[in-house]
Amino acid sequence: MSTPWTYQVNSDNAHPEHPRPHLTRPSWRSLNGLWDYVSRDASGEVHRGERILVPYPPESLLSGIGRRDEQMWYRRTFDVPPEWRDGRVLLHFGAVDQIATVWVNHQLLIRHEGGFTSFTVDVTDVLRPDAEQEVLVRADDEGNRGTFAVGKQANQPGGILYTGCSGIWQSVWLEAVPTTHVADLDLVPDLRGLDLVAHVAGEPSHVTVDVSVAHQGEQVASARGDAGQRLRLDVPDPLLWSPDHPHLYDVTVRLLGDDGTVLDEVQSYTALRTIRVGRPEDAEGGTPARILLNDRPIFLNAPLDQGYWPDGVYTAPTDEALRFDLERVKALGFNSVRKHVKVEPMRWYHWADRLGLLVWQDMPSLPVVLDNPPGPQPPPVAVARERFEAELHALLHQLRNVPSLGVWVVFNEGWGEYDTARITEAVKAADPTRVVVAASGVNCCHSHPDTGAGDVYDDHTYVGPGRPVLAAEDERAAVDGEFGGIGLVVEGHTWPGEPIAYEMVADRDRLTERYVELTTELEALARDRLSGAVYTQVTDVENEVNGLLTYDRRVVKVAVPVVAERNRAVIAAGSGD
């Protein structure tokens, strides 16, 4: 099955955009494109002499492979421009599923675990002088029979589990940096400005960090200090970020030498906003806790977004396609989006920042079933949990500067759930600036009762909407983390196999009518007690046909003006407007 962007993809334009909009320099080069490829598939057969289009996973049509592989070898060569030789050269990987081992010029440099986290290796010291360089990547992936977080990936897809993703599935790129350079930034905004920490690699003791904040090209705040020092930047007449007004501020960070020379310069951006759970200052007694954006109640009205593509599986065909889904969500009247048990490339979050959509970010779940056979080795459950927590904390760090990310979701419907309260408290400690859902769909999982952890009680009811009621003394907000799931088959736009949904309708008009009926109920709940709701779902995914769009993104299955009007009415009711 193709999408409108399938045939725009070729070896010269595979995601050529800068992969990391939150921290950019002009000196970088994409390594996306054709790589030499040798693999062993799930049956044990070895395949040689192939080429794969990176960053599309081998299961995908766009990769040129079209099968599930479990051990993969990628190889390509690259040149280093002469002007890059004075500093350091970094090799970045957006994501490789599940274990990546990297050699450059036959030198082993890194072994990275986790299919959703980015990683970087400094290749400077192994570069050949004035010669072609070689990078070799081995990827190992057991899919959902292993001990890594997988979300909805499955070796045997079916029902609500989908095609797995192996190997390199996000961009690979080179970057030239000075010997002393900005390695990372911490940006913590509030309603008056932001705190910034610049982490510097090289010789940080000999530099001054110079920060400038600008809006539409005009500087509005500045500060100077030492590397690693928390700098405060107050912004006069601050423009606050919200879904209706997604104001962004440009941030420039320079490293200055003792003589004032600019040693390094990076570009970033931020938004001024806060999000938390509480009661408005003017709330009457007995008012339930609400989600507050910038200290005002907001109803987070979102669709469920699984992030799957018929041509790219886990990887959108183009950046335009990545943006299209979010633009369609906005056009349908939603103000947020739930990224369901998957993590996207940084450009997806960039578009959410710029378009104005608050993101609910799920942690990808562990495989549902893990056995504990007897023996001297650590049991798989223990290994899986150690890997889960390591990747969770890596993702908390990786996405911490995304302004649109407002809600962390730790567990979903009991999948791989354990030590809920402890892990939720660790997430809150690592990121106290966002709302945390401990267990989305806690009512669905009798083996994991509600612990009271986190900021939100999250109900899943199909078709719903759910009607969660919390005790008066409960300080959490209540949301319908999933409801809906009304299915419509559009002939010529379906995945092979039996279509499934929680309820089926015959045509577009009836689907629109059902959406109106459900959201009319939701509007009353929003006015009374709910702080958010997530409708299943943005698009069909493989055999699930309960999307507002078909899987190929070619057909919108509802009347957009009607759905948008209903969604805005729900937001207004739940936001006190």
Instruction: Bin the helical content.
Output: 10-25%
N-C termini distance = 43 Å
Strand order of the largest sheet: 25-26-27-28-29-30-31-34
- The CATH class label of the largest domain is Alpha Beta
Number of helices: 6
Structural class assignment: alpha/beta
| CATH superfamily membership of the largest domain | Glycosidases
Given as residue ranges, the uncertain stretches (5+ residues, pLDDT < 50) are none
The percentage of residues in β strands lies in 25-35%
- Can you tell me the CATH topology of the largest domain? TIM Barrel
Compute the CA-based radius of gyration: 24 Å
Describe what this molecule looks like in 3D.
By secondary structure, the protein is α/β, with parallel strands linked by helices. The chain has 3 domains: 6-177, Galactose-binding domain-like (Jelly Rolls); 191-270, Immunoglobulin-like, CATH 2.60.40.10; 275-575, Glycosidases (TIM Barrel). It is 16% helix and 34% strand. It has 6 helices and 34 strands. The protein has helices spanning 319-331, 346-355, 380-398, 420-430, 508-528, 560-575, and strands at residues 28-30, 33-41, 46-54, 69-78, 88-93, 96-97, 99-104, 107-113, 119-122, 133-140, 153-154, 162-163, 167-168, 172-177, 181-189, 193-201, 208-215, 218-225, 231-234, 249-256, 262-270, 275-278, 290-293, 296-297, 300-305, 336-339, 358-362, 405-412, 435-440, 456-460, 477-484, 486-487, 503-504, 530-536. The strands form 9 sheets. An 8-stranded parallel β-barrel has the order 25-26-27-28-29-30-31-34, surrounded by 5 helices. The protein has a 6-stranded antiparallel sheet with strand order 3-2-4-10-7-8, with no helix packed on it. Strands 1-14-5-9 form a 4-stranded antiparallel sheet, with no helix packed on it. Helix 1 (319-331) packs parallel to helix 2 and helix 5 (508-528) runs parallel beside helix 6 (560-575). The chain is globular. The model has no long low-confidence stretch (mean pLDDT 95).
